[in-house]
Structures are given as structure tokens and as C-alpha cells.
Amino acid sequence: MATRLLTWLLRADMVEEVLGDLEEKFYSMASHKSLFRAKLNYWYQVLNYLRPFAIKKSKSTSLIRFTMVRHNFTLTFRNFKKHKSQFLINLIGLSTGLACVIFIALWVADERSVDKFHEHESRLYQVMSNHSDASGIRTWKGVPGLLLDEIESRVPEVSTAVATTDTHEFTLSSGETYFKSNGKFASTEFLNVYTYPLIGGTGISDKSGILITESLAMRIFKSTDAVGKSLEWHFFDQTKDVQVAGVLKDIPRHSSDPFDFVMSWDFFHDDLISYKNWFNYYARIAVVLNPSADPQDVSKKIDAILKEQQEEGKVDLFLTRYSDLYLHGKYENGKQIGGRVENMNLFITIALFILFIASINFINLSTAKATHRIKEIGVKKSLGASRWSLMGQYFTESLMLSLLSVVVALVLVRLLLPQFNFLAQKQLTLGMDWRMIQIAGLLIVIVGVIAGSYPALYLSGLRAIEVLKGKLSRKTGEVWGRKSLVVIQFSLSIILIVSVLVVYKQMEFVKQKNLGYDRENLVYFEREGRLINHSDAFINELRNTEGVEDAALSGFVVGGGNSTGGVSWPGKTPQDQIQFWEINSGPGLVEMLGLDLVSGRAFSSEFGADSTSVIFNETAIAAMGMADPLGKTITHYSGDKKIVGVVKDFNLISLHTRVEPMIFLYNPEKTHYVMARIKPGSEVSTLHKMESLYSSFNPGYVFKPQFVDQDYQAQYASEERVGVLSRYFAGFAVLISCLGLFGLAAFTAERRTKEIGIRKVMGSSVLGIVYLLSLDFTKMVLVAAMIALPVSYFIAADWLQDFAFRVGLEWWFFALAGLSALLVAWFTVALQTIRTARINPVECLRNE
Predict the structure, then answer these.
(1) How large is the C-alpha radius of gyration of the chain?
(2) What are the tens digits of pLDDT across the range 237-251?
(3) Which segments cross the bilayer (predicted)?
(4) Does residue 398 sit in the same domain as residue 442?
């Protein structure tokens, strides 16, 4: 191999002499020293001869290729310099488009990484439940807490299982200092199922143990050295002394369930849950399967355990991968049908649209400017240039432009990333690691090939004789191709405009819809500490506070709160399994919420103890099949209750779902909140007065009021962010399309300069010439609208299916989108055509 290398590179007059010397030295060393040292020395001598004076001067193919590549680069920079306007339009369009694509790529990568950090992610599954009733199937995470022991003892395919609760805000105290923190309860295998590393201590081994994050440790103890220190946990009327068993690293931002502390499941299950049976779905159970286990088989075994305990029950259990719930957490009639992944797919589609639109600009302007390079192509072909060499030249241009665009795009992303993070509510970073370099390189190649393929294939395929005779201008194929690309550009832009408009109108509908209750200026806060035993006195003082219109004890929570299937009624059969949203209430809550009574009355102290009374909504009465419900007795898991009222349906949950059965229980002692309505315009001053009153009743506790309307809006935070980001991306897509249209208009005006001069000499007005030059572009946008509007209708209709309550698709949505695209196109073209139309005819008719 060394000999062949030397023969290939060494000057011919030196080969024989050098090889002779090297072989003599090789055999001498092999006989006196060792073969290995002889071979090593031989390679050393060969490499030592590869010096400029000894290498043969070759006109090899590689040298020719290098010269051609250098020549292509030189031509590329000269063309960029010569056609500055075309270069700048392409650079701005591509870099803006690529910046949008990079933003979307960062956002998508961040979404896809949620919950992927757990060590057993591929084998970690959540137990889910499908509840069937007369209104359909409802899917959620709740399962009976008694199921945990059965899974651990009866399902050998499960390696580890854990029971937890949802995360809730609680109060912790250290001495006289109180803190509001988000916590949950979890069984002993919590840290073996989920990957939350400890920085000190151990897991929870008894009811008095608590795990806290390092951030919470710093808040409370000003140090992460907190193991063994004592805290006091407070919730409602419960208080418990706990001891820090371990300190966790802060929960990763890619967790879908952030929390500050974890307490013992045994304490929750044994001391806090009073209704422990197979019909109470208070637990969230996750399992880690053995590597060989089949999730479908395990699902059937776990479901069979529940079926043993529920004769003729209508609840089915199944497993779903834990990390899939964030993106694929939407279920309808028991089937997974989407979730946040729909937003991710939407943004990926927008990114492809923008990338395609930006590439179309390059293709259009390159083919449009071909007439300026006809002679160059003809001369090169007549002198023997191959089609491959010409293709290489055009691909070099597109790749160089793509490289510059990626660099500019990365700079734009770096500058605008803080604003994007604010809009997207993310913490994205742009690190120039190896992965980012790979992505940037891939973008350069993809955009370069897409944008340069048509010019390279088209221009390099022109016949030299036709080029030199000037016959290119008579061909209409490339003109129609260019027009088709403009139509595609504006079709995609119009689809984006319609989509953004529909999302905006649906969000406005969500904000303004009458939910059946009055959520304005309605504030609530936790009922804890001394408020448990002094609620009546506090409510009376609160009602007398200036700026407070009304106050009541409340268990009302936007989004549902507790749900129960433990309700029986006259005529109920085993097949009638209904889940009711359960709302504990004090006197005056129905009136303060502004609920309309269909029949009967609200809870009132005038009727004595109302603890055996209940109120249903219309949907619940219909589901139970009651014709005349007032005065009838139903059986709740807490005892027999008499129906005293029926309220009109109202939207307790989001507008994504239909109204579901609800039951109001007169149970003031179990209400977790105090709710008050504030006079409009006095919110700030009234909240200060409420805080002072709260502090006087509950010294040390943190007053943390929340507004009901803000909770309601928070349900649509994801859609709201998607809508805002979509508006920006759609705007950039339209801007990029307009840049291409502006360049084409400039080219068209330049090509028809002499025609314009003749028309002006013959008496044409500026307006007439503008009309003439704009007519073709108007036709293209109208064709784009005809294609895009039906497509956008089906896309918008499909997106709205996610809402049980939604806006109608009005005709003017689509008319406005088409008209907007047309006006933008007219304005873009007018910027160029008016300037051209005002040129002196003498300048137009003058020869070069």
C-alpha cells in the first residue's frame, strides 16, 4: 500500500531510484532488527518523500474539479453582487423562513422531550379508567386506591407499582412562618418508578416522612441540608407534624407534573380517605413492566381485578405509556384521538409551508432572471460545458445562499429567542452543540437542493443553439411553471390566514360565552387554620367589607374537582352507571354564582338543617330519567338526600367537553374555599382589605386569592399560545410570499420596459399601465383563493371538532382571508409597478 501511494504521487523520474533505496533499507532492517520496525520505517520514509518538490505536477481529475468548484464560487459571488435586489430578496425570504422553522423545531423538540427523562420511560405505564354511562365514555387517570396492593401481589409482569394523588397546593409551616407549596402523596416505590434524584436523605419510610425539593428547602431552611428537620403540614382542618426524609433535585422543567414536596401515601390512605372502596377513584397508579411483558396482557389482568370487585360495573381499566399522556392525552368515547400532538403537527405543517414558500421565491426569481444569463449559458455550452457542470454552478449558488440564510437565521433566532420564549411560555435555548450543527447542515442541504433543483435542471437543460438565437423568450412552459408556484405560495398563505382567523374567533367565543354562571370579579381562597371553626364570623365580616358584594363557603372549582359514581336513585338499574361532578356548598353559593333555578329552591338556613338536601343540574336529572324530581329521595354514599332544586346547565369544565351531570351537596363543613364577589373597579383596594381581614382571623397563614375567570382562561392557555404563535408565523409566511411577488413584479416591469414606453407615447395613463402590470398577478391570487378556501374550510372544521361548543364557520371568514391576500398582493405589486409606470418614455425606449 505504501509503495502504491508513493508510485501514484512521486515524480516519474524519481520513482525507480527512491523505491530501490527504500527496499534495500527495508530488507536490511527486517534481517537485523524486526519486521515490524522495518515496516514502520518504510511508511515513515514514504511519507517523508511526499514534499512539494517530489510530487508530480498532475492535471488530474481531482485538480480540475477543485478548479471548477473555485470557479463556481467565484461566479456565485459575482452574480450575488451583480443582482443585488434578487440576492437580498432571496436572502431575506429564506433567512426569515428558516428562522421560523428553527423556532418551530426548538418548540417541537421541547414538547417531545416532556416526561422522557425517567429511567424506565419505555416501560413506565399509567393505569387509566374508562367510565361508561348514558352520555358516553369518559376517560381519566382515577382508579380505586385498593388496586395498588392487588397489582403488586397478583400481576407478576409488573416490576414496580406506585400510587399517587394529583398535585395540590398545601400550606407548610416552620415555626411561625407559613409557605404555600405544591405537593402530592405517593407510596414507597415512588422514587423507583419515577426518576427524581435525591441530593440527600432517603425515600419515605413512614407516615411522618416528607420529601422536599432543593428549591423548597432553600425557601424554608435557607439551605439544602434539611434532612431530619421538622415541618408542619396543613390542609383544611388537618394538621400533621412531618420530618424531612430526603431532599430531591429540583423537578426537571420537562416534567408534566411539577411539585415541591411528596408525603406518605399511607398517611393519605389511612387517615384522610374515609370512603375506601372499589367505587372511589381517588388514586393515580403507575407501573413499571418487566422487559418481556406485553402491555395489552397486563391491561387485561388489571381490568379483571377490578371486574372481580364490581359486579356488572361499567368501568374498564387499561394501560397507556406515561410519557405519551402529555402529547396524546385526549380521549373520546374511550379512544385516544389526539391531544397536544395536534398542536405539534400543526406547527410542523406550518414550518413545511414556510420553508416551501421561501424556496419558491428562489426558484421563481432564478428562472425569471434566466433571460439575463442566456448568453452565458449558450457560450458555455458551445465551448463544451456539460450539463453536469452547469448544474453544479446553480447548485453552488443555491447552497451558498442557503448557507448565508442559515447563518442569518441563527442570528435572528438568537436575538429573538427571549421574546419567543415569552410568547410560548418556554425556556428554550439555542446551543451550538454537535446536534445543532448537524441540524444547521441538514437545513443548508435541504433548502439548497429544494431551492436550486428547478433552476439547475431547467437552465442547464437549455439547448445552446436556441439560447444563442434568443428563442427562450418564446417558450411558455417556464412562465406557466412560475405562475403555478406563485399560486401555490398564495394558496398556502390563504390557508394560514383562514386558520389563524378561525382560531382567533374561537378564542374570542370562549372568552365571551355565557357559561351559565357569572364568573366576573369572583375570587376565592383556601379555607384553613382558624377559618375552619370561625367561618360564620369570617363570612359575616367579609360581607360587611367595603367593595365585597357577597361571600359564601364554596366547593366550586373550575374544571370539575371531585367526581363520584356513588349515587343511587329510584329506578336505577345495574347498567345505570353515572359519574357526577360533586360540589360541596354553603348557604348562598347558588345565588352568588348566578345560577338559574329551573325548579325548586337553593340551599337556605330558613329551612333549618339542609344537610340532607341536594340540587342537581338538568343534565343529571335527564341522565337519571326523572320526570318530576323535586321531593324525591336519592342515596348518596354519605346517606339519603332529598332533591330540593334543579339548576340550569352550566359549563363547569372547559368548552372542549359537553355539560356533564352535577350534584350540589349542602355540606358547609366540607367546603374547602371561601368565595366572594368584588365590586367592579375596586379589585385592588378590596383585595387589600380582604387580606387584612384574613390576617386578623388567620395570623401567619398566606392569603392567596385566585380569580375564577383567570382559572377559566387557564384551561385554554395552550390554544391561546398556539393562536398567538400561529398569527406570527402566518404573518411571516405572507411576508415571504410578498417578497417573492415584489421580485417578480420588478422583473416583469423590467422585461416590459420598452412596451411601457410605447404605451405611454401612445397615450396610456399611469393607472392603465399599473392595471396592465397587475392583471396577471391578480389572476394568480384569485386562482390561489379558489384552491385554498375549500381546503381551509375542511381544516378549520376539523380543528373545531375538538370543542363541544364552537363558532360557526361563517362565509365572511373565507371572504376576508381571500380579500386580505388580494389586497396585500396589490399593494406589493403596486410598490414596483407605479414606480415603473412613472418612468419617462424616453428612458424606456433608449437602447442599452
Answers:
(1) 37
(2) 889 999 999 999 999
(3) 87-109, 346-365, 399-417, 437-465, 485-504, 728-749, 769-791, 811-831
(4) yes
405 within 8 A of 95, measured Cβ to Cβ: yes
Contact of 402 with 94, CB cutoff 8 Å: yes
CA 760, CA 754: separation in Å to the nearest integer?
10
Q: Compute φ and ψ for 563, nearest 5 degrees.
A: -130, 145
Look-up: residue for cell 338499574? 573
- Burial category of 596 from C-beta neighbours within 10 Å (exposed 0-12, middle 13-18, buried 19 and up): exposed
Q: Which residues of the chain have pLDDT under 70?
A: 50, 52-54, 56-73, 76, 83, 134-135, 312-313, 366-375, 377, 381, 383-385, 432-433, 451, 454-455, 458-482, 607-609, 747, 749-751, 836, 840-848
- Phi-psi category of residue 166: left, alpha or beta, with phi > 0 → left and psi -120 to 50 → alpha: beta
Answer whether 610's CB lies under 8 Å from 667's CB. Answer: no
Provide the grid cell at 544.
Answer: 360587611
* Alpha-carbon distances of 169 from 132, 258, 680, 775, rounded to whole Å: 31, 12, 28, 64
- Are 778 and 675 found together in one domain? no
Paired with 185 in beta bridges are: 263
> Using an 8 Å Cβ cutoff, are 9 and 47 in contact?
no
Ranges of H-type helices in 246-294: 265-267
Whether residue 647 is found in the same domain as residue 554: yes
Any domain includes 779? yes
3-state per-residue secondary structure call for 738-794: HHHHHHHHHHHHHHCHHHHHHHHHCCCCHHHHHHHHHHHHHHHHHHHHHHHHHHHHH
CB 9 within 8 A of CB 62: no
Domain that holds residue 19: 2-58
Q: Are strands 209-213 and 177-186 parallel, antiparallel or unpaired?
A: unpaired
How far apart CA 286 and CA 160 sit, in angstroms, is: 9
